[in-house]
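[agent] plan:
  1. take the single chain provided in the ticket
  2. run structure prediction with default settings
  3. attach structure tokens to the ticket
  4. add a short note for the reviewer (M.T.)
[agent] executing step 1
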Amino acid sequence: MFSTSIVSALATIIISAGANMPLQAAPAPLSQVTSNTTEKPLLFVMTAGGMTMETESKTLVLTDVSNDIVWFTDRPGRDAGHMDLKQFMSLWAGRPDDFGNVPPNAVIIAAGHEQTPAVIEILQPARDGSTLTFDIEIIDGTLPPQAGEVTLVVDPFMGTVCFPGVSPNC
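[agent] step 2 finished; step 3 output follows
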């Protein structure tokens, strides 16, 4: 589904960050997660089939967003796993330690623009099915008015994560 160049660009970023590190066993599935609070910062990778940038309103619209969000820990930890879009959106729930109070930064890599990724701050997300709309601030770079496939790599999060069956109060 995603172009080879987007996958290559993302792989280069991730590989260079973890060069010369030993391989670890596969992470435990969410069904084995026993706590909804992470003590390690989690980073996230999200993919979408397309994007539109509304420059005047500073609104980024991602369409055909994958329901599978990959999370991983920063070094020296080597944990990784998956969450669904609903769980990812819960990170803006308004708790003291979440993205609603300290908005994350992200790198967005758009098809056809792989050599010029943009760094953005994500504010006020809204979900309508597989469409996500974010108010954003551009920190560095520019976003095209439209693009096909995109990959979003989101800043670390540390706090309460709503994992299924573990987080009844989320």
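[agent] step 4 note for reviewer: The radius of gyration is 16 Å.
[agent] ticket updated
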